[in-house]
Design brief:
Elements lengths: L4 H8 L3 E3 L5 E2 L6 E9 L5 H7 L7 E5 L11 H9 L4 E8 L2 H4 L5 E7 L11 E2 L3 E3 L2 E3 L4 E5 L2 E5 L1
Helix pairs in contact: 2-3
């Protein structure tokens, strides 16, 4: 994949939003792009599991876990399912777990950090809604680019 977020920003400027959240890269792929799909949830990955079990078709799943560091919203099994179903990557506004295993998977994953505590199942999530964090509005269908320098999102 040949792009760099710094070059994209230099070329397109304010047509792009730059995420201010300082994510860590935990997947085996550090540069990824695709159309946005979203999940908004709180300490539960029920909707994340359901969505990554469907064809990703190169999309990037943006999970707004509302910044809670109490529970991981992604582990190696769910990430492997996403990879096998053709998702380009995941941006998790919450922690993940199984960090070593995630690093072996051929998928991009950025998260707030890690926590071995698994999520607590509930049905309070929302799929394909507009979510906001890191100074950016993530709209389903818009394009997202992520690399070692950060995350850019089409306005």
């Amino acid at each position: 994949m040949s792009f760099a977020t710094a070059d994209l920003y230099d070329e397109h400027g304010e047509d792009l939003q730059s995420v201010t959240t300082q994510f860590i890269s935990v997947g085996g792929v550090h540069r990824f792009t695709g159309p946005i799909r979203t999940v908004r949830c709180f300490e539960s990955n029920v909707d994340v599991k359901k969505l990554v079990a469907t064809p990703g078709e190169g999309a990037v799943l943006v999970v707004d876990g509302q910044g809670s560091m109490n529970r991981a919203l992604l582990g190696d099994n769910v990430a492997r399912t996403a990879m096998e179903n053709g998702w380009a990557g995941l941006i998790i506004n919450a922690p993940v777990r199984d960090r070593v295993e995630l690093g072996t998977l051929d998928i991009g994953i950025k998260a707030l950090g890690t926590n071995p505590r698994k999520s607590e199942p509930n049905d309070f999530g929302e799929v394909d809604v507009i979510v906001n964090f890191g100074g950016v509005t993530f709209r389903p269908g818009k394009t997202l680019w992520a690399d070692e320098d950060g995350v850019l999102v089409e306005r």
